[in-house]
Amino acid sequence: MLWVDKVLGSPGARVGAILNIAFVPSSFLPFLAIATGDFPHTLFYGPPGAGKKTLVMALLRAVYGAGVEKIRVETKPWQIELPSRKLEVELTTISSAYHLELNPADVGNNDRYVVQEIIKDMARSRPLGVDGNKGFKVLVLNEVDRLSREAQQGLRRTMEKYSAACRLVMVASNVSKVMEPVRSRCLCVRVAAPTDDQVMEVLANVAKAERLTLPPAFAARLVDYSARNLRRALLCLEVCRVQCCPLREDQEPQRADWELYIGEVAKSILDEQSPKQLYLVRGKLYELLANCIPPELIMRTLVMELLKKMDDEIKVETVQQAAIFEQRLQEGAKAIFHLEAFVAKTMSIVKNYMVSCGFA
Amino acid sequence: MSGQPWVEKYRPKNVSEVAYQEEVVNTLTRALETANLPHLLFYGPPGTGKTSTALAIARQLYGPELMRSRVLELNASDERGIHVVREKVKSFAAGAVGPPAAGYPCPPYKLLILDEADSMTQDAQNALRRTMELYSKVTRFVFICNYVSRIIEPLASRCAKFRFKPLQPAIMAGRIEHICEREGVTLAPGALATLSAVSGGDLRRAITTLQSAARLGAGHVSSETLLDVSGQVPGEVVSGLAAACKAGGATRFAALQRLVSNCVAEGYAAQQVLLQLQTELLSDRSAPAASDPKLAEALEVLGAADFSLTVGADETLQLLNVAGQINKAYAAA
Ligand SMILES: Nc1ncnc2c1ncn2[C@@H]1O[C@H](COP(=O)(O)OP(=O)(O)OP(=O)(O)O)[C@@H](O)[C@H]1O
Ligand SMILES: [Mg+2]
Q1: Rounded-to-integer distance, Cα A42 and Cα A170, Å
Q2: What's the gap in Å between the CA of A133 and the closest CA on chain B?
Q3: Sheet holding B139-145, edge to edge
Q4: Contact criterion met (CB below 8 Å) for B148 and B42
Q5: Is residue B1 a part of any domain in this protein?
Q6: Does the distance separating the beta carbons of A160 and B209 come in below 8 Å?
Q7: Buried b (16+ CB within 10 A) or exposed e, B225-251
Q8: How far is Cα B25 from Cα B18, in angstroms, rounded to an integer?
Q9: For B14-151, where are the E strands, in sequence order?
Q10: What's the predicted TM-score (pTM) here?
Q11: In terms of domains, do B206 and B154 share one?
């Protein structure tokens, strides 16, 4: 089992213990108090790797006790009867006697039907009479920010009509993508990423548990690299251990291949601005996409790499273009158009700047 | 069972209990007396009483029993493609009406509530047109939506339209105090004002926030707890960002970048950051009139970013762009 799963893994077998060694965001502390008994529909939001899922499990554990950790994972096709046709979608559910967890956005374009049929049915039926049951059942919905507008619309009345029998616990990393009427129906709980100190603490604890010495200078670099993302920190630590054990003081945190690759793309853009170079970069972008790196992640990482290397004078303009093209990428159908347009635009910004400085 | 959230527990049962929407309430009260109802279209922001009003009308017209056969509620959690409109709505509208229930007006028509109607496709709405014409003698339609522009004109023009307004702080305070009294919750000084401020005219949000805060403070609600559970960005974070943005040429981009990535890592909702940043910029009374054009530019940037976020743009890039653009505006002579 990967270390990251041991600490952040969803089947909360160790949740209690983890919360002791890991951090508890201060915004969450009050919430555990709310959880003693009844709680409203809840939306956890915060950046990736902040530990939202861990906290959901902690919440359920606080309400139902260890029983929620006896889980069953099941992937099966669901039949949905539509007036005009029959539809079959495959969904993975994780369930205990007290809760049921699913990721409705996984079915893509059909997410609306999952909300209208499957989730509504689950919410409507009364909970089973397990003892310790609080009189309502809990549905955990992951990645609600990836749900289409129609699917989110479909949640609205369900959340009101069946609120006595069912509570939704939702998780989102981009809360702006959750529509206002849905947010208005929940208690929204912000989950902050762990601070640098907290990441350091978790790393130290994991190292101790794994009998590993963690050289301070290396640890500091690792914390810096992880940018407050615990998942990133733990994955990287494990990779570094495989590369070189015992860990060395001067060891560099191993960056992921795709990150290095995007770094190269940024360098190419700043080195030379020409149609030929654009063509070269295009090939690299295609390769990143072919390796299933999400286009918005490519865009964001590329901007950050560019900002590290370029002069202050052209940063504002570059970010402005990035904001424009990243939005188009969200609305358009083919990501490559917008990534490439951004690269071309950036090259022209850089070129103009060089000319104005008399460098070119 | 204790399990009913306060928003449902305190949902108005009668039209007259709906707070603040006088125009709607007055017109509907008169219509209910004569049991003569036009087709209706309710629109307005979340948590202002639209669904509650429609359900209250249904209850007052038919009573809880007859409601089941005389009223059909279809919302976005129901499939509402053209197909359903043709079949389900038709068969409901066309069915004969049964005998009236004692003690209620029970007019000789049925009520079809189409909640969250702005999520229906244009095609489905067009299909409804015919149905509406055909059965308007025996059925009244109630359309409910947030955005009236998403309802096709031929449907909208057949209805009496009512706009539901965001609730005024004083009205909201009245409802909140009523609930506090019933639930034995005490409010610290200033808590009411805070609650109005954080819920922006959305009474449902106010009630949910109140219930969470009450649970936290064991029946006592303070401003701090409310701010805690409502997702507000702390004042010093916003003022820090605003100051850096306005510092003009003096600010290095790296400083803006640090502030923005902190906002994102702390998990503050980007739209909330924009909203509070706007308030902060507008509230600067000491700014000379000469800086007005800069302010105007900043406000435009904020608006554009809010729109971008709504269509799903990246939070980090949008916030960074806002910071950069405002900084540029203020740096310009
Ligand atoms: N005008 C009002 N008077 C009294 N209570 C209200 C009013 N508006 C909202 N509420 C409270 O908020 C809850 C939600 O209101 P309602 O369902 O009517 O909102 P809505 O306008 O339909 O919102 P949405 O657009 O999100 O569907 C109600 O259960 C009630 O507790
Ligand atoms: Mg409603």
Answers
A1: 6
A2: 12
A3: B71-74, B110-114, B139-145, B40-43, B160-163
A4: no
A5: no
A6: no
A7: bbbbbbbbbeeebbeebbebbbeeeeb
A8: 7
A9: 40-43, 71-74, 110-114, 139-145
A10: 0.86
A11: no
Total number of domains constituting chain B: 3
DSSP single-letter state for residue A176: G
Beta strands in chain B (DSSP E): 40-43, 71-74, 110-114, 139-145, 160-163, 186-187, 220-221
Last residue of a domain, one of B230, B247, B273: B230
Structural contact between residues A100 and A84, judged by C-beta atoms closer than 8 angstroms:
no
CB contact residues (below 8 A), chain A span 254-313, against chain B:
296, 299-300, 303, 307, 312
> Rounded to whole angstroms, how far apart are CA atoms A273 and A277?
6
**Looking at this predicted complex, what is its ipTM?**
0.86
Sequence-ordered list of residues with C-beta below 8 angstroms from that of B129, at least 6 positions apart, any chain: B152, B154, B155
| Pair B40, B149 in one domain | yes
Helices (H), A250-314: 257-271, 275-290, 295-309
User: What are the pLDDT digits (tens) for B104-118?
Assistant: 999 989 999 999 998
Domain region containing A229: 196-243
Q: Tell me if A312 and B305 make a contact (CB, 8 A cut-off).
A: no
What average pLDDT score do residues A36-62 get? 81
Within this chain, do residues A298 and A271 fall inside the same structural domain, yes or no? yes
Q: Give me the sheet containing A99-102, strands edge to edge.
A: A72-81, A86-95, A99-102, A137-141, A166-172, A42-45, A187-190
Q: Would you say the CB of residue A184 lies under 6 angstroms from ligand 1?
A: yes
Q: Please name the residue that has the structure tokens 């989730």.
A: A119
> Does A330 contact B325 at a Cβ distance shorter than 8 Å?
no
Could you tell me if A275 and A340 lie in one domain? yes
Question: Within 10 A of B36 (CB to CB), how many other CB atoms are there?
Answer: 12
- Residue pLDDT, tens place only, B228-280: 788 889 899 999 999 999 886 666 899 999 999 999 999 999 999 999 999 99
Give the pair of three-digit tokens for residue B328. 């540029």
User: Quick one: which H or E segment has residue A79?
Assistant: strand A72-81
Closest CA to B125 of B71, B76, B80, B78: B80
